[in-house]
């Protein structure tokens, strides 16, 4: 992976959208079969804050994303972005998923441009200019014409990040975005994502199974318990920014946070009698999601 550092200047014709405040206020949600996932669950994320959600399988991360995106409705309580109730396809929201979900027949550039075309706010020249700008920000200016299969997994995930950023979301939801990548690529993308976040300033809600990743990225790590417990505990990450892989990951504060979170996760897992013995490995720092 290249160690490029393109400047994150505002994009051509960017409509500045301020970072969003996210408010999840006492939501409850059960599936049709009666399975209760959230009971009076609340979480506030401040504009520009980087918050990670760490939690065992089944704690409701996917359900929460579906509720945040407005595709499912809580049975009670309200989720709002900048005081506006969430609804499907809200322009304030951007997504990056574990699988890059690129259109295989479109070039990297056209994949980034796709959402801009759907928005219908820019003419073709402006769309291409903006797509190029965000591809350059993720270091892929030279790969603009490549098809997804010609790109490595890490490069594909960069395209997916550029595609989300090009829409200039005020709140970026990242669902285990780097879990499928090798540790070196993941660490590099962690650093790159922070560089872009500090330049662009959006609010980020980041879901991960990786304790080290959660600490490295976040202002705050929120640990979820087994559904419907909701938030088990929170940890403020008081490590200075900018953060860099080599320096930050060896700081005493980083290692302290890791020890704390490993203890917390162990507590969460052992509080649930049904969790299999291998579950704890999922959370060891930098061990791949199993
Ligand atoms: N359609 C459904 N009907 C009933 N129960 C469901 C449904 N979808 C999910 N669940 C249950 O709701 C709980 C939360 O599921 P969810 O998929 O949100 O968890 P998760 O934290 O995303 O897990 P994972 O990390 O394994 O993806 C789980 O116990 C799951 O079995």
From TrEMBL:
CDD domains in UniProt: ABC_NrtD_SsuB_transporters
Ranges in a coiled coil: none
InterPro entries recorded: AAA+_ATPase, ABC_transporter-like_ATP-bd, ABC_transporter-like_CS, ABC_transporter_ATP-bind, P-loop_NTPase
Pfam families named in the record: ABC_tran
All residue ranges annotated as the ABC transporter domain in the record: 22-251
UniProt-recorded Gene Ontology molecular function terms: ATP binding
Keyword Membrane among UniProt keywords: yes
SMART domains: AAA
Protein keywords: ATP-binding, Cell membrane, Membrane, Nucleotide-binding, Transport
Record-linked PANTHER family: ALIPHATIC SULFONATES IMPORT ATP-BINDING PROTEIN SSUB 2, TAURINE IMPORT ATP-BINDING PROTEIN-RELATED
Protein family: Belongs to the ABC transporter superfamily.
Name listed for the protein in its UniProt record: ABC transporter ATP-binding protein
């Amino acid at each position: 992976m290249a160690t490029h550092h393109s400047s994150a200047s505002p994009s051509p014709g960017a409509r500045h959208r301020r970072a969003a405040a996210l408010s999840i206020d006492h939501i409850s949600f059960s599936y049709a079969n009666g399975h209760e996932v959230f009971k009076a669950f609340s979480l506030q994320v401040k504009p520009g804050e980087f918050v990670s959600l760490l939690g065992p399988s089944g704690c409701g991360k996917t359900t929460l994303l579906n509720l945040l995106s407005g595709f499912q409705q809580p049975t009670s309580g309200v989720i709002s972005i900048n005081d506006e109730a969430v609804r499907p396809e809200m322009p304030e929201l951007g997504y990056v998923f574990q699988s890059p979900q690129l259109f295989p027949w479109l070039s990297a550039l056209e994949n980034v441009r796709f959402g801009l075309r759907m928005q219908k706010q820019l003419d073709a020249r402006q769309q291409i200019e903006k797509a190029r700008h965000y591809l350059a920000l993720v270091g892929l200016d030279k790969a603009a014409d490549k098809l997804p299969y010609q790109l490595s997994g890490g490069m594909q995930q960069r395209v997916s990040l550029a595609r989300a950023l090009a829409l200039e979301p005020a709140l970026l939801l990242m669902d285990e975005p780097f879990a499928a990548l090798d540790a070196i690529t993941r660490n590099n993308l962690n650093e790159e994502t922070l560089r872009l976040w500090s330049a662009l300033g959006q609010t980020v809600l980041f879901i991960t199974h990786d304790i080290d990743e959660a600490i490295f990225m976040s202002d705050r790590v929120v640990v979820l318990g087994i559904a419907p417990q909701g938030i088990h505990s929170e940890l403020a990450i008081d490590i200075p920014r900018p953060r860099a892989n080599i320096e930050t990951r060896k700081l005493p504060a980083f290692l302290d946070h890791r020890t704390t979170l490993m203890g917390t996760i162990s507590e969460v897992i052992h509080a649930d009698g049904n969790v299999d013995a291998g579950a704890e490995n999922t959370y060891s720092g930098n061990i791949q999601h199993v």
